[in-house]
Each structure stands twice: as structure tokens, then as C-alpha cells.
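Hello,

Our lab assistant flagged a job as stuck in the queue for most of the afternoon. It eventually completed. Since we weren't sure the result was trustworthy after the delay, we are filing this so someone can double-check. Below is the sequence as submitted and the structure that was eventually returned. Let us know if re-running is recommended.
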Amino acid sequence: MEASAGLVAGSHNRNELVVIRRDGDPGPKPPPREQNGQVCQICGDDVGLAPGGEPFVACNECAFPVCRDCYEYERREGTQNCPQCRTRYKRLKGCQRVTGDEEEDGVDDLDNEFNWNGHDSRSVADSMLYGRGGDPNGAPQPFQLNPNVPLLTNGQMVDDIPPEQHALVPSFMGGGGKRIHPLPYADPSLPVQPRSMDPSKDLAAYGYGSVAWKERVENWKQRQERMHQTRNDGGGDDGDDADLPLMDESRQPLSRKIPLPSSQINPYRMIIIIRLVVLGFFFHYRVMHPVNDAFALWLISVICEIWFAMSWILDQFPKWFPIERETYLDRLSLRFDKEGQPSQLAPIDFFVSTVDPLKEPPLVTANTVLSILSVDYPVDKVSCYVSDDGAAMLTFEALSETSEFAKKWAPFCKRYNIEPRAPEWYFQQKIDYLKDKVAANFVRERRAMKREYEEFKVRINALVAKAQKVPEEGWTMQDGTPWPGNNVRDHPGMIQVFLGQSGGLDCEGNELPRLVYVSREKRPGYNHHKKAGAMNALVRVSAVLSNAPYLLNLDCDHYINNIPSKI
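-- returned structure --
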């Protein structure tokens, strides 16, 4: 058959193939069948009637005769278009919804639209497989007993079987399974009709399914009851019972190892082996051919080469067996942050380092701080320490403005699950920000927050412009006292807590994470060790204020998205 002949389709009830011609090519049509006056132009069967009693019409534009089975198959597996006018098929009442259908407002056909009842051919086949089947119209066929086939039960022939009893028969290989199914009626496709094994007992009492599955269900129920009793008692051995079901997410491991496929790691291992062989030949040559005229220089070079070779070999050990892990952060929250109980999550201290605000823009540092203050983590477990190694009043004033804007930005991020949580990068994204946002007032609040951020940027840029020209007498604070950091190389230590448990609530009245400004002491004649010294000062300050077991150091131009980023 030519490739351009058309679409080949098969009938649901007849053993034949038909060809759907292209536009303008009438071709031969199947012979009509005089039943309802209309025949399907695809399979040749009767078009049938709609649920209301009218003739079934698949296409409302051209009324091209198509039966319901071909209509549903075309929508589910085909192009979803009418073969004649190429108009997309609309969902008709009683049919299942498919991808690409328009949104509907009606609620009278939801069961059929979303197939909640499972009225399709596959559900019928599945129900037949598990012994609940009937004909496609839902009416079970009457049980038919074949008297010519005797029944063996316990070594005796039994012929007087009441027709209302069910029978357990093995599903044949042609049926696609090895289960045992009770069939309440005769299946003409089976070579042996089902008959009772024990006429004295109604086999319907056995239920549906296999004995093995029934035992598994009973064991599962027992484990569930045991786990529920352990939870109610509040005791136990902390979940070490091996019978507890694995479905309890809070008891699952927080991570697992992901094995690398051999097709990826074996080529690299072969390269390592080849390099080792080449390295062995190289050292053999170097040792067997010394340079007598410059023996000391030769010996030093050989020692250095051996040193570098050993360091390379040690570096290959972790690469020979690499380990990749997958973490489950939702289980961490289920295990250590339960509702109605004090959070057991570990505290975290964030260190942000900056030196010169004219080289490292304060707006970038502010975005880093804002992303930290808006994470979904217990506020009493998060602290942000900003190290100003340049003792600049511009950085101090910028952090003051940042703490005020954080009172509006942090609740907005947590309410609508904003990502990323640095406002500069969030508002610059060219994405559909309405995706997965179903709140009606989200657009209004987002636009208001964007205006607030633009005003915040104006205030920060005004501070930067003002700091370009330093007064001769130095900077002064709002109370009139000189700024202690006017002399960058000789000033006392400065610590200022902007936000924390003592105050500084957000616009919704909730607490915010602690925000601390730190500028370490510097004196002339003492080595301050640059960034290492700044980190030491932050460790000392955090040990007094929060003393968190975990420390995370960030540069001023970094930002975090949310809790997965810092864990």
C-alpha cells in the first residue's frame, strides 16, 4: 500500500481494515449497513445513538458520520480532528476529557469528563481480569453450565452443581495472567467452563483476589495497628522495629546513594590505569638513567616528581569510587519539625562578608541578606551576621534600610512561595509568574511589592550617591556623634543588632530572623589577616549571640533560594 493512500483503521466488531482517504480523494467506501440510516465512514459500523436518543454526531461543523468508538479513539490516540473538515473534536457529554480540551463550567458531567467511574474499555478489561466483569453495557451474562464437562473435586466426580454458585478457575495464558478469578458467568472464550470445586460451600465467600495477596493485606493491617499503638503510647525503641511499614515517611532515611552506571565510570577507570602504567614506565626510565654530571639536581627533580605522583594517586581514590547522594528534605521536616511541638531543627548562622561598599554595591549585599531573612525555616533558628571589614557608614545605613524592607518582603515570599527570594533576581525573571499561583490577590500584592522594592532601590542609590563625597570632618551619626569607623585602620569594634527576638516584627506581627552588623576592631601595627580575621570575629560574635552548630559563609554577591539551598 502506498504511504500516501491515507490512514489505515480497523473495525471494533469486524475483521477488516479500512483506509481513510485524504481530502479530495473520495476512494472506495465500505458498504452501508441499514440499521439507523447512518454508518461510520471509518469502520463501517452503525453510528448509533447519543444518550438522549438522537443520532450520534461527532462533529458539530460538518456532521461527518463517525461512530462513538472511532470518535473516542481519534480523540484519545489520533489527531483529535474531524477527518472531513479538520475541525478539532469537542468533548461530548458522556465522553472522557483529553489533553487540549477547553475549560468547561458545567458540573453535571464531571464523572464522565474526568473518568472517575472508569467507564472505558480498559476498565472493563481490568474488571473482567479480576472477576468483576460483565458485558460492555454493564449487564452480566447468565451463568451457563456445561454438563458435558465433569468436575473433579477431592477425587470425586460432581455433577449436581447449583447454577448460582461461583467457580474458581485459573486464567489461561491467552487471558494474560496466572491469577485465580471467580467468574459468576460462563465465558465462551474459555475451553472449559467454570464450575464449582466444592458444591457444599458458596465460593463467593472466598472474595476476589488471591490467597497470597490476602495474607499480605492482613500482615499490612497488623503492622499498621502495631505502629498506631506505638505512636499512641509514646514509647518504644525509637522506631527500630523492623515490622514498622516503610510508608512512614518520618522514619525513612534522609538520603540514599545513587549508583553510577558502569558505562560512565569504567572509561574513566581505564584512563586511570593507563596513566598509572605510563607513570611506572616514566619513573623506571628516570631511575635507570641518572644524570651523573648534575646528580644533586637530578635527585631533587626525581623526589619532586615522586611527590606529585603520590599526590595524584591519592586524588584518584575518591574518583575511583564516586558517591552521589539524593536527599529528601521533606522527611527532615517531618522528623524534626512536627506541628504542635517545638522544632528540633538545628540552628544555622549565616556569614556575609563585605569590605568596600563602593566596589561591592550595597544593593547586591542587601539582596543577599533579604534572601536569608525570608527562608522557610524557624525564625529562632536562623541568624545573619554581616561583616563590614571596611567600617563604612554606607554599609551600616544600607543594612538599616534592608531590615525595614525585610519586614514586608519576608512575609510576601513565605505566603506565595516565591523563588528566588532575592528581589532583584525575582523581578528580573522573564517567566510566567502566574504559574501555580491560584490566589486571586497575588497579582495585586506582587505589583505593590514591586513598587516597594523600586522605592527601596531609590533609597539605597541615594545613600550611595551621598557617600561619594566624604566630609572633611568625617561622617556623623544621627545623634551627632562621630562615626567610629572614620579611620578604617584604627577604630573600635562595632556590633549592632537590627532584627531579632527582642523586636523588629514584620508587617504581619511575626518575628524575623536575627540580623547583626559586625565591624571588628582594627589597630595600627597589628596584622588583621584580611578575610580570615573577619571570619574569626564573626565566629566569636555568633558564639555569644546564637552559637549555632552549623555555619554557612557567603560572599556579598551570593543569594539563596530557600531551605533546600542551605541544607
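-- support follow-up --
The delay was a queue issue, not a problem with the job. The result is valid. The mean pLDDT is 74. The first helix runs from residue 68 to 77.
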